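Dear colleague,

Following up on yesterday's call, I've attached the two folding results inline so they're easy to grep. Please treat them as preliminary; we haven't cross-checked anything against experimental data yet. The first protein's sequence and structure tokens come first.
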Amino acid sequence: LTCRIGMNHNQSNRLLNKQELAEEINQPPTTINKLRRERKIPAIRIGYRSYRYNLAKVLRALSRLEIKSPE
């Protein structure tokens, strides 16, 4: 995974939508959906079908997983 290093406090606490998270961790949005459904990454449910993600918490969760980059 590639991600931004050196986030400041405001960036690490900012909630991202699926597309923003996908861009941050260099994965397709479908992978974000899959990881959320499998409860491998933390998500905050907003409304009926919307989710938001805390980048710092997602990166901690992903550090415990091995994810192959898309080829």
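Below is the second protein, in the same order (sequence, then structure):
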Amino acid sequence: GGNPSGEAVMNYEMNVPYWERGVRVTIGLILLALIWVGPSTWWGLFGLLPLATGLAGWCPAYYVLGINRRR
């Protein structure tokens, strides 16, 4: 098998359980809020990582370590 178009395709399966996705999105939004509220620091941009992995349901660190928490 392979991709008929010859393009490289990244196939991944979700490796973050639904409950953890919700936690990641919540933490990500709270961290992002730090940009405008409270200490008003750009460190809040670190909230993009948990937000993105929560929305995607896929964590690159879990992938590299061979962890799949959805099982």
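For the second protein, one point worth flagging: The chain has a mean pLDDT of 88.

Best wishes,
A.L.
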